[in-house]
Queue: 4 jobs
Job 1
Amino acid sequence: MNDLLPLKPLPEPNDLTRPFWEACRRHELRIQRCLSCGRLIHYPKIICPYDHGTEFDWVRVSGRGTVYSFVGAYRAFHPGFQPDLPYTIAIVELEEGPHMMTNVMLPPAEVEIGMKVEVAFEDINEQISLPKFRPAGAP
Amino acid sequence: MKGKAIISGIGETEYSRNSGLSDKALQLQAIQRAIADAGLKPQDIDGFIPSAVAPNLYYEDLVENFGIPDLKYTATLHYGGASGTGGLHSATMAVASGVARHVVVMAGRNGVTGSGNISRNLAVTPPKAILDQASRQFEAPFGALVPMQFYGLIARRHMHMYGTTSRQLGAVAVTMRSHAMLNPKALMKKPITLDDHQNSKLLADPFRLLDCCIESDGAAAYVVSAADVARDLPKKAVHVLGIAEGHPPSPYSIATRNDLMVTGATQAGPRAFKMAGLKAQELRAAFLYDPFTFMVIFQLEVLGIIPWGEAAAFVESGGIGLKGKLPVNTHGGLHSQAHSMSGINHLCEAVKQLRGEAGPAQLAQAAPCIVTGFGDFGDSAVALLGT
Ligand SMILES: [Zn+2]
């Protein structure tokens, strides 16, 4: 344990969410899809909320989306985020429909609702890469 | 259910930041005061609805400490800040059905030094149980951890849609504080200006420090009784005109709620008004759950009291002040009175206003009024009260 470098909370993939996180590790954004009605579901669920199907696959989405809303984090409520301040917490609406919580990798003052963004993976360790977003078409 | 239930008694502990009392001691004290206020004996209580936000107090504690001989009904509510007012829904059903005669609803905690400091508990070491939930597994890793940030996402969207400004949020804060200054139980008594709000520390943009409610020690409780006991009460009965609860789409997560302007109150509001046979424009006072300044503006609109996009200007023009068209939170709210009792302090203030016991903040006419609870980022309870 290194008390000087507090670790951020990390996802702990379980049977329901493992396909999502394994795809992220390969730098692919994949969303759960119901096999009977074809709707995309995020966060992953045991039963499809639209038609109650119970069989799914994981479809690769474009990774493109728009900022639906965002918050500028100026205080770290967990010490692991202190070095990132200020950072941007955002809800991104994927081109394919689902909304997801993420970070836009820009200072909050440079983010706007409606901004076009695309996924950019941040490798955390051997198991986890986090799907974050950056302005679309950025070099 | 209409006409079947009254609020017969209210009880609040002292609100402080250093009570030195355990969760349980605070909670039992609030219950004892509410029972006495109703002119009842503890043995008369036959129903109990604690909030899950009140840690460590179960029906067993009630029965053991008060020697309740025949508890006929108990249920614990798990909708965060909506549980305090939501308890009125369950209690009204219990007395309307004849299952129970006198039901205690209670919430409270030692919120500063005790078990109940929610922000600290959630954030410092995100518990495994939280990270196991699919919702939190997809949120905490991005540094989305505390209510301030989640509610901030709703507020930012509202600002984008309707042009709501930080100064307008500040107008809520200044009004809440001006009400708290008149309230003997309020913790925050120092006057604030709009500039103080604008200069307060930015924490989760759009929210500054002075957009946020306080944390405190304290508990509050009320007794719901069958309406036929009204004439035997020592104090004026407060009638439950309308009561409803509502639960939002994507209740685990606002991130996956496709329209952030939809919430539990979207459904609960019309149900409560229909039961009461009232229109929102007939209200004379409102007691709105206010963990953040924005939630006052938001609920005025969600509940149809003010048209969408107009509540911020209504607040800015003094509409929610004591002399305004619709006084809101005459006790100072969660923002400036106290916050550790799941909004039961709002319900207690509503009862005091309706009885004429609200002291320097007493309104000439407070009936009919609305009390809301709002919790877990979307659960909602809406009560309409009168005399
Ligand atoms: Zn389906």
Job 2
Amino acid sequence: MSAPVTAPPALEAQAIRKAFGGTVALGGVDFALARGSIHALIGENGAGKSTLIKVLTGVHRADEGTVRTDGIVRHFSSTDEAIGAGIGAVFQERNLLPHFSVAENLFLHAPPRRYGFLDRGRLKRDARVWLGRVGLDMSPDRMAGTLTPAQGQLVEIARALALQARVLLLDEPTASITEREATVLFERLRELRDEGGALLFVSHKLDEVFALCDRITVIRDGRTVLSNIERTALTRGDVVTAMVGRTITVGERRTEHAATPAATGSPRLALRGVETSWGHRGIDLTLHAGRIVGLYGLVGAGRTELARAIIGLETVTSGVILAEGRPIRPRSPRAALLAHRIGYVSEDRKGEGLILSHPIRHNAGIAIWPRLGGRLGLVTPSGERRAVSPVIDGLAVKYASLDQDVGELSGGNQQKISLAKWMASDVDVLIIDEPSVGVDVRTKEEMYGVIEALAARGKAILVISSDLAEIVRLSDDILVMASRRIVSSLPNTGSYQVLSETIMHAIVGAEAPLHEEG
Amino acid sequence: MPADTSAGARAWLPLLLVALVCSAGFAVLSDRFLTSFNIYVVLSSATLLALIGYSQLATLAVGDFSLAVGGIGEFTGIVLGYLLHTAGWPLLPAIVAAIAVALASGVLNGLIVVASGVSGFIVTLATGGAFAGAALAITETTPYTGLPAAFNFLGTGRVGPVPLAIVTSLLAAALLGVLYNSRRIGRLMLAVGDNPEAASLSGLSRREAVLWAHSLSGLLAGIAGVVATAQLHEANPTAGTGWLIQSFTVPIIGGTLLTGGVVSVFGILVASLILATINDGLILLDVGPYWVTLVEGLLVFFAVLLGRTRLRDLLAHVTARAATGRLPESGAVQR
Ligand SMILES: Nc1ncnc2c1ncn2[C@@H]1O[C@H](COP(=O)(O)OP(=O)(O)OP(=O)(O)O)[C@@H](O)[C@H]1O
Ligand SMILES: [Mg+2]
């Protein structure tokens, strides 16, 4: 017996098929993950990326095909068995126990024990170490239910790292974190690779893919279209073409920017010297009809909390909010919507934006029920379908039927439904928090088109985003928030390079003194 | 007490105040309230209430329900009555055997839930009825009386105002406190109750948690059945009639979440004491039994309000800020 010339892949999938009822999610996918490499898995929303990861980790059982680790055939029937075989994963959806501490969430699979009892001292010490590795400085005693989506994502990444698995599968780990946190994460991933780890990385951010990954696999409609190709042999154009199945151009920034009429009349919504219980100070912000304002900042800068204060979910302690020049103080999102026609698309789609066990048409139509109701106030399924289907098709949602539960859609498609809900509604002011988290490159363009069309119809729009490229692509004006203040306000010149340097400078300048205080 | 630090688990704190105010009121209004015997009566019924509450707490922890608490309690009492009365078994083996039957009933519930995938609510609706029916069939509705004096003493013996039986509820509290705080199984049950999806994706077994929860619930219902039998001096097949409502009232007042994942072991002791006090006081004041039920209902309502309102969230927010000295969101490092 001679030793094999090359070692078998750390993890390998062959001819995997998986269908959910009539929907074929995977129609024969081949995939191999080698030791000492970071492998990108790319595909449009609904292509089957998450399903493949779930098959590889025993969450789903494949209808056909085989999974091997180090050449040995495996039939995982639970994540427990996959973890046992050295495979760790961060799934696309957040999976934390809200009433458990961050520390316990980190070591859920194998908490430290002493004489059979949970060792809380060691739990906390170990937790600090792993939190530090992903750049999180928070008390390990914090309840996971109080974390923001970005913090939750980082905690889950830390949890996967703490498993110290040889194979790590990451499903859109950077979806809700900013570049800065991602940079820390990438350092860790490169270390793991250099130690011989096998990593799978799913992302819709091609910049990241090209900066981080060694190999690329692209799937489309549940089939492999580019299999295990060296990154250096591919261009972005190749990858996008493979994903989409045809050649498309991905826009740089809105070209019709010059056509946006200058602001006239009183602003739709204005904040003057607003302070909140969250610590915002002296916030000035002006939203004009037909214009898009981008609010950029790092995770934790306080952007979401400002939006929540505008719609009455946080307390405004001083300053004024003006709608069409008149002071308002909405007490609830409902009041903001009905009395002042202000809509807010939450960044926490799953927690706040969608009812997963309800059909697509319900979820997309929920904000327009008052309008849909006929003379008797009855909302009929067909009325609902008629009202929501144009919007849903405009966002290229991949679904089997409008009566399908939203929970069955892929992550990115769920995202689109929560946006569709507000696009269908008739508001004057729309605040959109992280519009394109988890949305593929093609749909991103379509989504931007929809947002621009809304602005063109006279709506005033505030886009909150941690993706600077997105801000530059969409906004007429850019605001930068750091430590709950607006530290910079600039017109969009369209030059990504110049803007990004100016903005980072503003953020660093604003934050440095705060750190010294703390 | 870490299992009691999570949201909702401190809902009993204001209730302690309610209990003190009520007690003071009753003491002023009735000179029979603060007597040694009356305190014994209150502690006795609080003991039984706490055990009934713990039996339900066990299933609530995993986000499930048991409607079989009363049925298992009655069935256990009748098995015990039969062994002591008809079969003439000695005390200790009879008690152990009866509790083993209760445990087996709980395991059966758990196995059915896990194997069928049907919710515990429906499964125990059926099995609970079956256990209660079996108790009635065995006795043909006639209670076993004339139980050994030593056994009756366990139920109604007292040292001054303190009933001997209180040992059972205090011991249950101590053991459950350790279980839910520090033991793998306890944390597993709470994890599954808190977010079943997340727990399962982290490699934890939902089936294991649910099986344990129902088994534990059966065991505790059995202990309640034994205590009830000893307190009554008879094994009565209808002893558990009112237990169903009580089994939910006590944990809810105590701050255990109906949705799972958060239990308050200590809260059960406080809640059972309050219910027993109010019940006793109202009877001493000659308030009709229907009014007692009404007051209990209102109490549950206020407990839930106190436990779940924004007022509490606000307090939690303020204390969190005071504790860390900074705003919650600034936890993410920005360098
Ligand atoms: N539990 C389910 N029931 C029914 N259909 C499902 C289920 N899970 C996934 N699907 C379908 O399988 C297909 C692939 O979904 P998957 O989540 O793998 O996509 P994805 O590539 O991860 O997309 P995204 O980029 O949006 O996360 C989709 O059409 C989706 O609707
Ligand atoms: Mg996905």
Job 3
Amino acid sequence: MKTVEEINQRIKDGDAVVVTAAEMTSLVKDNGLKETAKEVDVVTTGTFGAMCSSGAFLNFGHSDPPIKMSRTFINGVEAYSGLAAVDAYLGATQPNRNPDVGLEHGGAHVIEDLIRGEEVELYAEAYGTDCYPLTEIKTQISLESLNQAIMVNPRNCYQNYAAATNSTDETLYTYMGTLLPNNGNVSYSSAGELSPLLNDPYFQTIGTGTRIFLCGAQGYIMGEGTQFATDVERKNGVPVSTAGNLMLKGDMKEMDADFVRGATMPKYGPTLYVGAGIPIPVLNEEIAKRTAISDEEIECRIIDYGVTRRSKPTVRPANYHELKTGTIELDGVEVPTSPLSSHKKALEIALELKKWIDKGEFYLTSPVEKLPTEGLVVKPLEIQKPSILVKDLKGEALILARPNDQINEVAQKMVKNSINHLPVVDERNKLLGIVTSWDIANAVAHGKKNLTDVMTKKVIIAREEEPVDVIARRIDKNKISGLPVIDKDNRVKGMVTAEDISRLIGGD
Amino acid sequence: MKAWLTFSPSIVNRAIISDLVKNFEITFNILRADITPKGGKMLIEIGGKQRKQAIKFLEKEGIKLTPIKKVVKKDEEKCIDCGACISLCPVKAICPADDWTVDVDDQLCIGCGFCTFSCPTRAIKVTE
Ligand code: SF4
Ligand code: SF4
């Protein structure tokens, strides 16, 4: 048994034994738990991942004449300024207001620009008051000119996170990166055995007030982050899915651009790569045992991101050792994996923190308050008006074509019913393809006779149980005007068109 | 494919290119040209069914042909070794080293550009 005070005394004397979480795993394996728990004083952890829930409070100082800013833009990125006169909160995922820049340079990039010491443009509008007469301002600012630039991240360092794959037949662009069709790849984001909260899964040492490494500066844990959950499934003591997370703060003026980066997940948006490292004092054998956890013992779930609902189906469980080998088996196929968070940087951070402690520049803290360990689940947001499902749409008479129908018959059918799409089905009404009036015109123009030669065989479909809003997005994304509705057995039930949907969505 | 054609001074006056286009079923595009009486260079893009025969013809006529390959380049300053690109590469040209430095092998790269679009820091580019 040791105390934090004793460990700090050893740090001061230059005697503390500090190892990274990865080194701890092998030490315990080689020398046993008892010996290692006695020997090691501090275990350092690290992670460098895309953490969307990040941002910064900025105080610009007062201009002359003064202004009470009500809308603020920094390098074209809006920061929320509904707080006092010259304060704003710049969120990492805010896109640029210039549509040509859009997602390419958002809040996260401006945060990086500031930390790099670059000058950025501040533009603010105001409604003008007796004490703050100015209504508009445009000037250049930099990290140095700001009174305060305090990074405050409401939800960082998730204890664990799902791995993602995509069972649909189109590429998806998500916050988990680009997901190739037909389960073509798997991405995962946790740092595994180096990840801070996986090394102290019951928050025995990490809590409110804990001093940490944040983007190259000494920062602090403000408390539990938003969406914090405790009551989750665990394996080997660690949650197998998202659970705990942290709200962090740090002074941007002391940060190092090597450990923070503005990035853009393609077609998703800006996000901030945050480097965080947390020291864990090895106070007893129990804590030592937790920090010795290996990638093999940490499990997560591979989730199908092809399902755009709140709860997505699990494809299979996987541990981080498997994921880090670079391939994983899904349904008998070897699928390549991508980490998304930088394991190299994570280790660099754990080593940097170790160096600080070794040099006596960083002292450990006891939490002023423990983080919750039970009773918290993440509540969903219920939409008051439940979402309308495809099967709720009022269907029209089902008009279908068969593969050996003549082109001219099909053309007549379409004209007679004034429709533009016709699903082609087999004798059991299973979908084979789709023809549009354009395909028919094309067939006539080229003298083609068979429907199977002109129909589109790769059909974008709607399932009966899908919400109409998901279909609206699909129609928009694929630039199509309608799609067949399919039941569980792939039988065609009807058609939904862009018109049906806009009538429904525009109608209230 | 794209290639540089190098003309020696002795052949700049002959109508090789027009013969080429007349006699072979090819698509042919001149992207850049810098030819003087002292010889010169021309950047072309050549495609079509008889492309291989056409190239043989050029070589027979004494023109040196240097194909240009698409190469993938990673900006080491910008790259954060996140590995998002690794699983997207169809030819496994992107692999992590033991310390998780993400390495790209431009010999294996086929220039498909999947990695380019998906890199969160826009660190990886395909150039010629
Ligand atoms: S996706 Fe970009 S930043 Fe990430 S490893 Fe590849 S090149 Fe580097
Ligand atoms: S361009 Fe294509 S082949 Fe080349 S490294 Fe990138 S993903 Fe691989």
Job 4
Amino acid sequence: MEENSMAEVFNDIKKPENLVYSKSKVLTDNVMHYCPGCSHGVVHRILAEVIEELGVQDKTIGVAPVGCSVLMYNYIDIDWQEAAHGRAPAVGTAINRLWPEKIVFTYQGDGDLAAIGTAETIHACNRGENMIMLFINNGIYGMTGGQMAPTTLKGMKSSTCPFGREPAQDGNPLKITELLAQLPGTSLVTRQAVHTPAAVRKTKKALLKAFENQKQKKGTSVIEVVSTCNSGWKMTPVESNKWMAENMFPFYPLGDFKDE
Amino acid sequence: MAKMIGLIEVDIETCKGCSLCVEACPTSVIELAEEVNGKGYNYAYMENPDACIGCANCSMVCPDSCITVYRKKVEMV
Ligand SMILES: Cc1ncc(C[n+]2csc(CCOP(=O)(O)OP(=O)(O)O)c2C)c(N)n1
Ligand code: SF4
Ligand code: SF4
Ligand code: SF4
Ligand SMILES: [Mg+2]
């Protein structure tokens, strides 16, 4: 195409009525500190989109974890509370009980939710606290330098198991989401991913459902997102997505465990 | 016959050159530039603009919300 006619075509397409996708207004202009290609960014993005689409920016309160997403209150323009490592479900419980009319979610990594915070996680779900728990499972402690997490796969390398996780010494990887599905307090328990456009759309749908459940006071909605930590895994973002599909999904299968 | 033509705009300065959009595009529109942005990343751009169908797959996987997508239906003669 000629330069001129191409510019013409572009101008013709680039009109408000032809807009298909633009950045959510619930996201701030701060550039996220995450490594290039990190799953955290994708999940933040669709979370902001869901909050915008449901028109609940004024009444949603997030509880930020300790982990790479510790600064996420800088990126999504809602009310936030920072929790100590693993304690987000306890803080979420308090918010939920003080302000039952608000929408409350926690956002936690696997180290946060499934290691140091296991007790808080299980008891909040068992009580059926009316909140959403978003669980970013990248199989590693991303923030602190890629140490082994409870979710690290058998044979998977990390800085504290450089030859691969050996269950006889290191214990077995924990499927905490399957465990949480057994508890009477949970209503929606699902495992999703954000490695392809279709997967992103599905995770967004699960989020919409979880927000709807909160409005209907159905108890705890748990959404696990099997994620990548390309820096910790020492792969490119594209390689990480492939590795995740090949290695994480067989052990952490995607799908709904509970939808009541 | 009608055809969808698309256009993406990449926010060059916030792009981190992760390449996830390149991988997600069904019609191989996007590539990473030889040049780098202010942060030193090879940013994404439309190498084959004619092939864009405005499906928004690229914007779906972008962790940094850098991509704006437009789509228009045109009648082919
Ligand atoms: C009480 C306490 N113990 C330990 C730490 C150190 N620490 C910070 S982040 C982290 C683990 C983060 O891993 P994860 O929750 O999986 O989040 P990711 O960075 O992978 O997203 C640990 C152990 C801390 N900040 N506070
Ligand atoms: S260390 Fe891992 S989890 Fe943390 S920002 Fe980088 S890629 Fe993401
Ligand atoms: S809108 Fe679709 S076709 Fe166009 S660049 Fe993005 S992924 Fe490719
Ligand atoms: S997905 Fe986003 S950040 Fe990554 S290369 Fe494409 S535009 Fe840049
Ligand atoms: Mg982690």
